């Protein structure tokens, strides 16, 4: 089966884990600190604004408390969002307010967001679909005018930028995922960025029991290093040196990964451009960069599901991300979202990862064309 997502791991990652094992310390330590510093450099920020956690969903859940979003406050999400974002808002006791998206990019626009702003709106939890940048100038201007916080979910945008600024560093808070199906993988893990360094300090305590003082080897001051105090009822959601070691190795490989993913994107564009029954992704806005996490086509003849099943039978796995939250019965949200509905019914994400071989790509495109000849002519 040709996978839609797939990590790239090898001897270098194994060697980095071996070094951690030999150190006799596999918890949060020097490797985590080094990764936070190097990731901050990667996004052209500073280490006093970056912290790691155990997964991006933890960042979503923690964002509610860190951004002072209370029960009853309204948080706007594009309905095409990861379920973790919806759960984070609802678990906080806040009201999830959904907005529509652009039907081609699947990103929310300022005009979509403004339609659902009320006096109770406290934040926008914004998804950059597949690492494709939203129109951040317009959205930040809108947020400033209403005094609304902006939380950027750029889980898939590890190398994405908007007019020279890394995604995740433009709003009040941003986050990236390093789970098993992302581009930079560490098994599990994530990085958070805060515009205000004081919020990063607050996050450090929240993500580790609310501890005000450090214990054990980290505490070189106190005579009774086992004593401590807490400033909040925090929990334990930290990265460790095993996952950080993998992430450090993967970080070095990102430029090569981006070259490969861009080449895959261009191959699909070139070989599928003449198929009149599908729409290809729109070009990226000038001055912006994507991480090429998704390559999504839109089937214009109502045969998206038939195509997906045909490809799976032929050994090519595809999917649709992300199922609109207004279609999830558990949320109990209704409304009119025509663009998201169009996207949900017609969009298909093709295999996109740096491990795809030329033979894999020829197979994917060949089977799509084969389907077109059978069902679309």
What does this protein structure show overall?
- This protein is α/β, with parallel strands linked by helices and 377 residues long.
- The protein has two domains: 241 residues, Aspartate Aminotransferase, domain 2; 122 residues, Aspartate Aminotransferase, domain 1 (Alpha-Beta Complex).
- Helices cover 37% and strands 14% of the residues.
- It is built from eleven helices and 13 strands.
- Strand 4, helix 6 and strand 5 form a beta-alpha-beta unit.
- Helix 1 runs antiparallel to helix 8, helix 2 packs parallel to helix 8 and helix 3 runs parallel beside helix 4.
- The two termini are 27 Å apart.
In short:
The chain is an alpha/beta fold and about 375 residues long. It contains eleven helices and 13 strands.
Feature tags:
37% helix, 2 domains, 11 helices, three-stranded antiparallel sheet, alpha/beta, 377 residues, single chain
């Amino acid at each position: 089966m040709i996978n839609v997502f797939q990590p790239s791991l090898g001897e270098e990652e194994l060697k980095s884990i071996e070094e951690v094992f030999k150190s006799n310390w596999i918890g949060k330590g020097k490797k985590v600190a080094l990764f936070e510093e190097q990731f901050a450099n990667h996004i052209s920020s500073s280490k006093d604004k970056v912290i790691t956690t155990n997964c991006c969903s933890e960042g979503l859940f923690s964002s509610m408390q860190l951004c002072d979003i209370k029960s009853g406050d309204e948080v706007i999400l594009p309905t095409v969002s990861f379920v973790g974002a919806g759960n984070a808002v609802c678990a906080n006791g806040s009201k999830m307010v959904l907005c529509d998206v652009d039907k081609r990019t699947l990103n929310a626009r300022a005009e979509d967001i403004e339609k659902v702003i009320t006096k109770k709106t406290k934040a926008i939890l914004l998804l950059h679909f597949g690492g494709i940048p939203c129109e951040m100038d317009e959205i930040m201007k809108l947020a400033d005018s209403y005094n609304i916080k902006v939380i950027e979910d750029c889980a898939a945008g590890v190398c994405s930028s908007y007019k020279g600024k890394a995604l995740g560093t433009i709003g009040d808070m941003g986050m990236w995922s390093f789970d098993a199906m992302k581009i930079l993988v560490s098994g599990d893990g994530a990085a958070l960025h805060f515009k205000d360094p004081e919020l990063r300090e607050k996050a450090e305590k929240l993500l580790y029991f609310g501890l005000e003082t450090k214990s054990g080897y980290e505490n070189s001051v106190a005579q009774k290093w086992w004593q401590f105090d807490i400033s909040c009822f925090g929990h334990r959601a930290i990265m460790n040196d095993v996952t950080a070691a993998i992430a450090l190795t993967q970080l070095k490989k990102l430029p090569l990964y981006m070259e490969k993913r861009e080449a895959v994107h261009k191959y699909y564009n070139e070989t599928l451009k003449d198929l009149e029954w599908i729409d290809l992704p729109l070009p990226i806005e000038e001055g912006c960069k994507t991480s090429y996490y998704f390559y999504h086509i839109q089937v214009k003849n109502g045969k998206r599901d038939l195509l997906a099943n045909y490809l799976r039978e032929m050994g090519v796995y595809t999917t649709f991300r992300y199922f609109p939250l207004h279609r999830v019965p558990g949320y109990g949200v209704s409304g009119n979202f025509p663009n998201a509905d169009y996207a949900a019914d017609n969009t298909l994400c093709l295999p996109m990862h740096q491990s795809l071989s030329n033979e894999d790509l020829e197979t994917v495109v060949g089977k799509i064309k084969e389907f077109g000849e059978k069902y679309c002519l």
